[in-house]
Each structure stands twice: as structure tokens, then as C-alpha cells.
Amino acid sequence: ALTGRWRAGCWGMAFCSFFGSEVYKDHFDAGIYVCSKCGYELFSSKAKYNHSSPWPAFTETIHPDSLSKRKDRKNALKVSCGKCGNGLGHEFLNDGPKPGQSRF
């Protein structure tokens, strides 16, 4: 593994980790979060912020094509890796740290 790159994702599952088992929630070192399946860059640590959810929270992706999205429910989109399609969780619309921002 490369220093400063962490593997984020769900290994093809529809959820990112079991509640309370997410090791990167309180991890704020500088680096890049990548897909656990293909290694594609998803999020920069610069876009990470502290949130009350049990999982890491980000405001934006590192590349415009880092994620593919599809409507899941009224205020949430299902997101997957933009390169390999690995399921990563959700984008929660208007739930970021600033009004109008999303939370990944």
C-alpha cells in the first residue's frame, strides 16, 4: 500500500461497513481515499469533515467521474465507483456542512 492512500469502499456490498467498525471515520491525515476494488481515486482528505454519522463524511469527490450516481430516495443518491461500479453508499443531498452541500 502507498503511504497517504487509503482504501475506501465496500468490496461489492451495498453498504460501506458495519456500524461501529469503520476505521477511517476519525482518520484525518492528509491523503486520498481510493476504491477498495480497483484503486480509483474517490475523495481527498481535504474534502473530509467531522460528522455525527458512524462513517467518514466528504463534501466532494476528487474527480468529476470518481462516482456514478443513481436516484435511491427523495434526498439521497446511491453512489458507486465511477470506474468499476463498486457500491460505495450514498450521497445525501443538502446534508453537508454548508447549506446546499451534499454529504458523501
TrEMBL record:
<dbReference type="InterPro" id="IPR011057">
    <property type="entry name" value="Mss4-like_sf"/>
</dbReference>
<keyword id="KW-0862">Zinc</keyword>
<dbReference type="GO" id="GO:0005737">
    <property type="term" value="C:cytoplasm"/>
</dbReference>
<dbReference type="GO" id="GO:0046872">
    <property type="term" value="F:metal ion binding"/>
</dbReference>
<comment type="similarity">
    <text>Belongs to the MsrB Met sulfoxide reductase family.</text>
</comment>
<keyword id="KW-0712">Selenocysteine</keyword>
<keyword id="KW-0391">Immunity</keyword>
<keyword id="KW-0399">Innate immunity</keyword>
<dbReference type="GO" id="GO:0005634">
    <property type="term" value="C:nucleus"/>
</dbReference>
<keyword id="KW-0479">Metal-binding</keyword>
<dbReference type="InterPro" id="IPR052150">
    <property type="entry name" value="MsrB_Met_sulfoxide_reductase"/>
</dbReference>
<keyword id="KW-0206">Cytoskeleton</keyword>
<protein>
    <recommendedName>
        <fullName>MsrB domain-containing protein</fullName>
    </recommendedName>
</protein>
<dbReference type="GO" id="GO:0045087">
    <property type="term" value="P:innate immune response"/>
</dbReference>
<dbReference type="GO" id="GO:0005856">
    <property type="term" value="C:cytoskeleton"/>
</dbReference>
<dbReference type="InterPro" id="IPR002579">
    <property type="entry name" value="Met_Sox_Rdtase_MsrB_dom"/>
</dbReference>
<dbReference type="Pfam" id="PF01641">
    <property type="entry name" value="SelR"/>
</dbReference>
<comment type="function">
    <text>Methionine-sulfoxide reductase that specifically reduces methionine (R)-sulfoxide back to methionine. While in many cases, methionine oxidation is the result of random oxidation following oxidative stress, methionine oxidation is also a post-translational modification that takes place on specific residue. Acts as a regulator of actin assembly by reducing methionine (R)-sulfoxide mediated by MICALs (MICAL1, MICAL2 or MICAL3) on actin, thereby promoting filament repolymerization. Plays a role in innate immunity by reducing oxidized actin, leading to actin repolymerization in macrophages.</text>
</comment>
<dbReference type="GO" id="GO:0033745">
    <property type="term" value="F:L-methionine-(R)-S-oxide reductase activity"/>
</dbReference>
<dbReference type="GO" id="GO:0033743">
    <property type="term" value="F:peptide-methionine (R)-S-oxide reductase activity"/>
</dbReference>
<dbReference type="GO" id="GO:0030091">
    <property type="term" value="P:protein repair"/>
</dbReference>
<feature type="domain" description="MsrB">
    <location>
        <begin position="1"/>
        <end position="104"/>
    </location>
</feature>
<keyword id="KW-0539">Nucleus</keyword>
<keyword id="KW-0963">Cytoplasm</keyword>
<feature type="region of interest" description="Disordered">
    <location>
        <begin position="85"/>
        <end position="104"/>
    </location>
</feature>
<keyword id="KW-0560">Oxidoreductase</keyword>
